[in-house]
Design goal:
Layout: H1 6-23, H2 41-53, H3 60-70, H4 73-79, H5 86-100, H6 103-115, H7 124-143, H8 152-163, H9 166-176, H10 185-188
Length: 189
C-alpha cells in the first residue's frame, strides 16, 4: 500500500494554489468620482479613503492630484483653484468634507432619494433597480448610525419640511443654526 503523508499533500496543494493565485492578474481599480452631490458623498468618501488616503506609499501632492481628477462639477469647483502641494491635500479634503458632512443634510438627501423613486413597471430590471436603490439608502442610513426601524419621526419631519414654502423653510433652517441636529417634530410643529 502506498500511503502518502497527509501533511505533505496539504502542503503541496497549498503551494499549488498560492502559485496559481499569484499568477492571476486582477483588474486595476479605478479611483471613484464625485460630482458634489451630497447623496453621493458617503460612498465616494469610503472608496477614496480606502484606495487613496490610506495608501501610505502615495505622497499628499499625488493624493491631491487623484482628488482633483476624481472630482467633477460642483466638487471640482470647490477645490479647483488649490495648487498641487503636500500641504494642500488636507485643505482640499477638508473643504469637501465640510461641504458634504452635515449629518442632517445627508439624512435629508438619503430620504429624498428613497422617496423620489418612481413607480415601477412590471419589469425585472425596474424591480432590481428599486431594490438596489433602497438597499443603498438603507446602508447609507446605517453609516450615519440610523436604524431603519427608528426613523418614523425623522421621515415625518422630512416630509413636512419638504412641503414648507421657501421662506418658512429658510426660517426653520435658521432655527437649526446649520447644525447636524435634525430638530424634533415638537419643535417643528
Amino acid at each position: 500500500m502506498n500511503k502518502t503523508d497527509p501533511e505533505h499533500s496539504i502542503s503541496s496543494v497549498s503551494n499549488c494554489n498560492a502559485s496559481v493565485l499569484s499568477d492571476v492578474k486582477l483588474p486595476t481599480l479605478s479611483v471613484p468620482t464625485f460630482n458634489g452631490k451630497i447623496e453621493n458623498w458617503i460612498m465616494f468618501k469610503d472608496m477614496f479613503v480606502a484606495s487613496v488616503i490610506e495608501n501610505k506609499s502615495i505622497s499628499n501632492s499625488i493624493k491631491l492630484q487623484y482628488l482633483k481628477a476624481s472630482c467633477r462639477d460642483e466638487a471640482l469647483r470647490v477645490i479647483q483653484s488649490i495648487s498641487i502641494s503636500d500641504a494642500n491635500f488636507d485643505i482640499a479634503w477638508k473643504l469637501l468634507e465640510d461641504g458634504c458632512s452635515n449629518k442632517r443634510e445627508l439624512l435629508n438627501a438619503i430620504i429624498k432619494k428613497l422617496l423620489s423613486q418612481t413607480n415601477i413597471s412590471e419589469s425585472s430590471s425596474a424591480i432590481v433597480n428599486l431594490i438596489v436603490i433602497t438597499n443603498e439608502c438603507i446602508r447609507s442610513l446605517e453609516v450615519l448610525h440610523y436604524k431603519v426601524e427608528n426613523l418614523s419621526e425623522t421621515m415625518i419631519m422630512f416630509i413636512i419640511v419638504e412641503k414648507l414654502d421657501k421662506s418658512t423653510r429658510y426660517w426653520w433652517e435658521k432655527e437649526l443654526n446649520n447644525s447636524d441636529d435634525f430638530g424634533t417634530l415638537k419643535q417643528l410643529l
